[in-house]
Structure formats: C-alpha cells, structure tokens
Amino acid sequence: MTEYVEPNSAMAAFFAHPRVTHLKTRDWSTPGGQRHWFSIDPKMTLAETRELLQRLPLGAYVRSFDWQYDSPSDAGAYVELQRYPNLWTASFSNHGWSSYEVPIEFDSAVKLYWDGLLVDDLHFMGYQRDREPRLPEEYTAHSGLSHELPEKFEERIKPSIVDYIDQRVADIDGSVQASPNPRRE
Fold first, then answer.
1. From the centroid of its chain, how far is CA 21?
2. 126 conformational bin, left if phi > 0, alpha if psi -120 to 50, beta if neither
3. Where along the chain do its domains lie?
4. Which of 1, 41, 84, 167 is exposed most, by the fewest CB atoms within 10 A?
5. Residue 138: CA atoms inside 13 Å, Cβ hemisphere, count?
6. Which one, of 80, 13, 17, 21, lies nearest residue 48 by Cα?
7. 157 contact partners, CB below 8 Å, separation of at least 6
8. How many other C-beta atoms can be found within 10 angstroms of the C-beta atom of residue 13?
9. What pLDDT, on the 0 to 100 scale, is given for residue 180?
10. How many angstroms separate the CA atoms of 101 and 6, rounded?
11. What residues contact residue 137 under an 8 Å CB cut-off, 6+ apart?
C-alpha cells in the first residue's frame, strides 16, 4: 500500500480547483520536486482550464496529449507545458523522441491543454473526433522544478514546432467558434 504524501504547498491552489481531484503525490528525482497524479472533470470548460493553469506554480509543468501531432513514432504526442516567470514553454514527445522546449503564449497553452483533456493520455490507442473518447483516469504534473530557462534556449527553438503550435491553436479556435464547448455537451 502506497503511503499518501501531501502535495507541496506550491501545488495546493492547483488541487483546490473544483474540477480537479488530487490522487497521489510522490517525491521526484529533482531535489525538492514532486510528481502529482490527478483527475480532471472531462466537462471542464476553456475558461476553467485557463483558471486552472493560472494556478500552476512557477517551474511546474503539466502533461496532456496532442492527438494531431505528426509523430515519427506512434500517433500524436505528449505535450508538456511549463510555466516560467515571463512565459510558458511547450515540448512534445512520444516513444523514443522528444522536442526541445519552445516559447508559447499562455492562451495557446490553455487551448492545447484543454483540447487534450478528453484523450486518455495513459493508454492512448487512437482518437477520432466522431467517436466518444475514453475519459482519462489520471493526468500528471511535476513541481519543484527549476524555473530558469535552459541554456541556449533561443538557439534550439525549431520554427516548424512554433508554426505547428500556431496552426493547432487556430484549429482549436475554429472549433470553439463553431461550438463554444465542443465535445463537452
């Protein structure tokens, strides 16, 4: 039986969100860091997602799944969104590969995270918009991480990933304009 560990105080506001249920917390390999598992009400709105991510402490990151990313391995990609003092970053990964972090606008981070909420990011087997998606059992967040940008951050940014994020957010905006709460009615 796993002993329950109280989430660190920096994440307390995040877990206090009414659509979030904290499941467990364990110490992470980074000194002072923790890994958190939680579930999210699948009917969370875009506005609620914005409020949730505003509660994420500096240095922490959340993980979701981008089902449209053109991965060189399995379909889609995990997306990690990390909060820094003056910006957010996104990185993508899947079996055997990962991208470097790229800067992302907060509103873009919100939309990418929100769009992935109905994808089961633990056991992804393929997602089709015209089918009822399986609901995620758990999401993860990591806290207590450094909020200093990596060295050579600007030199490693791939324009293709920045362009991809811009296009994905435009697609999400289009679906939101067509229906303010798509796939969550």
1. 16
2. left
3. 9-178
4. 1
5. 11
6. 17
7. 100, 102, 103
8. 13
9. 57
10. 29
11. 39, 120, 122
Q: What is the largest CA-CA distance in the chain?
A: 47
Measured distance CA(11)–CA(95) in Å, rounded: 28
Angle CA(72)–CA(73)–CA(76) in degrees, nearest 5?
A: 85
pLDDT, residue 104, reads 95
DSSP letters for 101-125: PEEE-HHHHHHHHHHTTTS-SSS--
- Spatial contact of 144 and 8, defined as CB atoms under 8 Å apart: yes
Spatial contact of 175 and 182, defined as CB atoms under 8 Å apart: yes
**pTM of the full structure:** 0.82
- Going residue by residue through the chain (185 aa), what tens digit of pLDDT does each one get? 444 556 667 799 999 999 998 988 888 877 778 888 888 887 889 999 999 999 999 999 998 888 788 777 677 788 899 999 999 999 998 878 888 899 999 999 999 999 887 654 443 444 444 444 444 557 888 998 888 888 888 888 889 899 999 999 999 998 888 775 555 54
